[in-house]
Structure formats: structure tokens, C-alpha cells
Design goal:
It contains nine helices and five strands, in the order βαβααααββαααβα. By secondary structure, it is of the alpha/beta class. The protein folds into two domains: 118 residues, P-loop containing nucleotide triphosphate hydrolases (Rossmann fold, 3-Layer(aba) Sandwich), CATH 3.40.50.300; 75 residues, Rossmann fold (3-Layer(aba) Sandwich). The chain has a five-stranded parallel beta sheet with strand order 2-3-1-4-5, sandwiched between helices. Helix 1 packs across helix 9, helix 3 packs antiparallel against helix 5 and helix 6 packs across helix 7.
Length: 198
């Protein structure tokens, strides 16, 4: 099975590209979705996060208060490392299981979508790497609209990731998502054709 990586910056349009890939029949393993699953109520992952950060990270229904956790870790690199040390191994194990499942099913091509592929040194495991890119001002505006964040919150989250230019430099394919959805979908189709043809 040919497994390729998909990444980008906060609010750069990874989800738009992933949706197009799914529409074209490509299974997409979403690291964000796995991150939610490994800290779902009743999981060892959630218990470990509560042990590390205290009960204030829980909502009244016992699920993780993701905005509260984001607030704690995006402004404090030490706290972010602490959270990552808990969840990254769990996400890694869940990813490996999902990849094995797709391989056993006989899929020819699959995509692994993750915001931190480059930051976490996983680029070589997911070649070819596709990076979705937009200008930072577009990222800020989209993050504010999507996440109901202030400009300062959006910029702090963007600053917590590697600059998009660094990700673009590591890419095998770049999809510019600053135009219309149709343009992005056309670019995605072309990149997928190149990957399938390689």
C-alpha cells in the first residue's frame, strides 16, 4: 500500500483537501480524530491527561475540555511537551493499527493527515508529503472564524507550529489553498494523479 502524508498549518485547509481525497476514494487516517479517540471518556489516555493536568480539564459530562487544554498548552511549551508525551504514543499505536487494517483490506493508496508530521520528525515515514499552504493572514482570519478565537489566540496557535514555509520546504507536493474551493479540488486531483502514477 502506498501511504502518503498530508499536512499544513492551522486553518490552512487540510480538511478541505482530505474531504476531496475521500470523495476520490482514498482512505484518510485523520490524526486529529485518533487524538480524540485516545482521550475519549473511559480510556487510559484520558485518565493520564487528568492525572497530569488535574480535573479542571474535564467537562461536566466527563469528557475532555479541549479548549481548556488548548489554553493550557498553546501558551506553555513545557505543558505542550507534557501533553504530547502522553498522547503521541497512543496516537502512534492507533495509527499503526489503522494502517495495518487498510493494508489487509488491499487498499492501493491511503493518506495520513496530521498537523504535526514535520514537527514530529515523521516526514520520511509518510513520503510523498503533501503540504496545504496559504498566507499567514489567511490562516489567522480562517482560524478566528472557525474556532471563534481572538486574533491573539489564533496567532499563538499558529506560532506554536513550525512556519508553513518550513513545511513547504519539506514537501513533495504543495497545494495552494488561497483560491476557490474548486481550484483547491483541481490541485488535489492533480497531486493524487501524480502520487498514483509514481
Amino acid at each position: 500500500m502506498r501511504l502518503f502524508g498530508l499536512t499544513g498549518g492551522l486553518a490552512s485547509g487540510k480538511s478541505t483537501v482530505a474531504a476531496r481525497l475521500r470523495a476520490l476514494g482514498v482512505p484518510v487516517i485523520d490524526a486529529d480524530q485518533l487524538a480524540r479517540e485516545v482521550v475519549a471518556p473511559g480510556t487510559p489516555g484520558l485518565a493520564a491527561v487528568v492525572e497530569a493536568f488535574g480535573p479542571s480539564v474535564l467537562l461536566p459530562d466527563g469528557s475532555l475540555d479541549r479548549p481548556r487544554v488548548a489554553e493550557l498548552v498553546f501558551s506553555d511549551p513545557a505543558q505542550r511537551r507534557r501533553l504530547n508525551a502522553i498522547v503521541h504514543p497512543l496516537i502512534g499505536a492507533a495509527s499503526a493499527a489503522r494502517i495495518a487494517e487498510l493494508g489487509a483490506r488491499g487498499e492501493a493508496v491511503a493518506c495520513y493527515e496530521a498537523a504535526l508530521l514535520v514537527e514530529n520528525g515523521l516526514v520520511e515515514a509518510f513520503r510523498p508529503l503533501v503540504v496545504v499552504a496559504v498566507a499567514e493572514e489567511v490562516q489567522v482570519a480562517r482560524a478566528m472564524a472557525r474556532d471563534h478565537a481572538t486574533e491573539a489566540q489564533a496567532r499563538a496557535r499558529i506560532a506554536a507550529q513550525l512556519p508553513l514555509a518550513t513545511k513547504v520546504a519539506a514537501a513533495d507536493h504543495v497545494i495552494d489553498n488561497s483560491g476557490s474551493r474548486e481550484e483547491t479540488e483541481r490541485r488535489t486531483d492533480a497531486v493524487l494523479a501524480a502520487i498514483r502514477g509514481a
